[in-house]
Amino acid sequence: MGEPFATFVIHLHNSQPCDTVRAMTRIRSTPPSHPVALYVHVPFCRSRCAYCDFDTYTGLEFAMPAYTDAVCREIEAAGERWGSPPVSTIYFGGGTPSLLPLPLLRDILHAAQAAFRLSPAAEISLEANPGTLTSAYLHDLRNLGVQRLSLGIQSFHDAELELLGRLHTQAQARAAVAAARESGFRNLNLDLIYGLPRQKLCHWQETLRTATALEPEHLSLYGLAIEEETPLARQIAAGALPAPDPDRAADMYEWAAETLAQAGYRHYEISNWARSGQECRHNLTYWRNEPWLGVGAGAHSWLDHCRWANLTDPLAYIQATAEGRTPIIETTPVGPEQEMGDTMMLGLRLAEGVATDRFRARFGLALETVYGETLRHLQDLDLLTWDGQAARLTPRGRLLGNQVFVHFV
Q: Is 58:362 a contact under the CB 8 Å cutoff?
């Protein structure tokens, strides 16, 4: 599903190109005290999905070698800047990372191993489109050290896949899962989307039952969001499609939660379920508001009390790095108050919630001291539970998360 986004990302606002020196001097170089999660953005796609507003591009396959060189240079510079920080996870997101030829993926992994202290137990994930995979590619990908595969299946109904602008069929999706298993992948995530225009509950139930029958270790279920300037948004605006029904989408979500619990999956984050011990460690870094470094065009980072974003155009990104210029276009220092709010907003997405002990260890203040009145108000609205030890969303709060998160912005 793209940058953690696949994940979640706090986007920078009003990001305009800025002076190189000004951008870099606002990012300090204190070595991180906590292992860093490395996100690698691969912006290439064969075609653009009807709902997608991610930083992705078609027709730029010719730039893949130069883009890989640019990413490797950015990784090398980051390692020098932060003194070879420890890295616990690597996540290739996009776009369609599985379009990148294996020698280029190998180059990026080698650059990361040279620049950072990569944990021997590092989780290395790659997003893939089922329509781009072959058994040979998967086998070699596994031999490269990628252990976790995230397949953007979205639906097991061909008509829904066509509506979404996906290139694969449900038969190809099943075949991709079988090929991944045959190639040795034992940590498999399936991305699914619900709440489509005209989608019937029974069709969603069939999709989810098919998915669970394939026994993935992890499932990510996303309610369809209609983003401006996408083909789906234009179809809805023109009256060619109805807008998604939020009540039906809520029914789909609640049914999925009940069904997956019965199937042995733990609902550990609003949109994510996993077998015990198979939670996505990379995405847990985002939700716990721990440091991550994003490399590549359009990638975002959060490190050393600062957020920043890279140039979004892959060709401009390539040119900047080739000329020895930073690809960073904007930086935002993050003060303690904002960091506390981000920690709450992200942490409440998790079933574990936000514990006062962890909050105090990080900020030197009790959760009650900073947010006690807000937590009690949200508890009165049945949006979260607060027992003095931890704050967690209620089932109602999971459906109405934005009504909770706005209190911590």
A: no
